[in-house]
Amino acid sequence: MSDEGTVEREITVPVDPERAWELVTEPEHLERWFAERVELDPTPGAPVRVVGDDGGERHGVVEEVDAPRRLRFVWYAPPDGPPSTVEIEVTPEHDGSRISVIERELITVDAFSDLLTGPSHRTDLQALAAA
Amino acid sequence: MSDAIGATFSALADPSRRRMLGLLGGTGATATQLARELPISRQAVAKHLTQLAAAGLVASRREGRETRYTVTPEPLEQAVAWIVQAGGEWDDRLARLGTYVAADRGV
To answer: Which chain B residue has its CA at the smallest distance from A9's CA?
Structure first.
């Protein structure tokens, strides 16, 4: 039993970190492995929208970007799926790049809105969920 | 739903509470019995039991002058289900990424 709601996975790919960064941040590439449809702009505050193979949607917001190393976003499945943060990190390896992922369950929906710094963002998010 | 899973993880974040759940498995126990098994006071046990109950992880039943606590596993199952599902999704995604990179070397 894990202490908290955290999932950690990683893969090493035979490409340089700049290329690996493109693989994890550009929709053109993300749609080849991450999900059927991916809207993501690696800019803090940018909306995230992901449509899975099964048609299930996740909506979220980019929280932190440190190119070409780290991307963090928060997402949830509308209307009331448990929100979680996803942190993707690219680390140079001698023969490629390691791409590691940590997905963490957030404590409450309130914590989710706190992360988005204020009520106006929360409204944006609800609008996003309704769209 | 999200609140419930979050409360489960918070409740499980504390080692004393995890130990208590282990001791409560099966027939359950009273706060006094738990305090005897743990290096913490009966008062601290009672406080942890309140938090576990709030997370829906334990149920209580009056037995004479004492209250007996038992484990209710449903929230645990939901929390584990989240980890299993999210983990499975990332396994699939990273496997596809590996295949994509291999098929697409030097793009």
So the answer is: B90
